[in-house]
Amino acid sequence: YYTAAIGVMFMLFSALSTTGWLLEEHERGILDRLKASGIGPWAVVLNRFFFSILVGMAQIIAMLGWAALVFDVRFFSFRQLVCLAILLPAIAAGAAGLGMFITGIARTRRQQTTIGTIAVLVLSAIGGSMIPTFLMPQSLQAVGDWAFNARSIGALQQVLWYTTPSDTLASMFGRIAPALGLIAVTTVIFLIGARIAVARWR
């Protein structure tokens, strides 16, 4: 369980770090020079967004590899690998989208770190990264089930732990599809918000 839970939380913190460099570039005047050369806000946002996805994927792959070697977590079937190849970039994109949005609305790197840390800790607390959601009160579970962490952890559990020999690739994808849909929608919303916020930087 905690392979997925801690992995998702670390991806969020990693996204905050990698997207936060954008504020440092803004403070140093690098973004102004990019704008003067004709590079628009979307190019700036997407460049940092995709870089954050790559860093997040490398991080979660390393954690899963450690879990396989040390804790004997097995996810080497073709079906599991295909689902992970779809799921991991989606989760990394969701984390990167949130990081970009927080970076966009922040004024300074310190403010981004403060807001982002609080947001990640709250999402992790109610979403099951710190304490499994089934140990929480029903009222808190109802809220936490919609958190990014809870959806990501639940989808990873479906692939890593709840796969049976009788499962087909279609049935496995059907179980993670709701989480993928929610993550995709929130990612797009956060990216649009980040683009609007970055375009207003002066």
Give me a quick take on this structure:
The chain is mainly alpha-helical and 202 residues long.
Would you kindly provide a written description of the structure presented here, covering whatever features stand out?
With 202 residues, this protein is an all-alpha fold. The chain is 80% helix and 0% strand. It has eight helices and no strands. It has helices spanning 2-27, 30-36, 41-70, 78-105, 109-127, 138-144, 148-160, 169-199. The longest helix is centred in the C-terminal third of the chain and has 31 residues, at 169-199. It is globular, with a radius of gyration of 18 Å. The chain starts with a helix and ends with a helix.
Helical fraction equals over 70%
* Unreliable sequence segments: none
Straight-line N-to-C gap: 44 Å
**Helix count, DSSP H or I runs of 4 or more residues:** 8
Q: Can you summarize the main beta sheet?
A: none
Query: What is the CA-based Rg, rounded?
Result: 18 Å
As a percent range, the share of strand residues is: under 5%
Determine the structural class based on helices, strands and strand pairing: mainly alpha
Order of helices and strands: HHHHHHHH
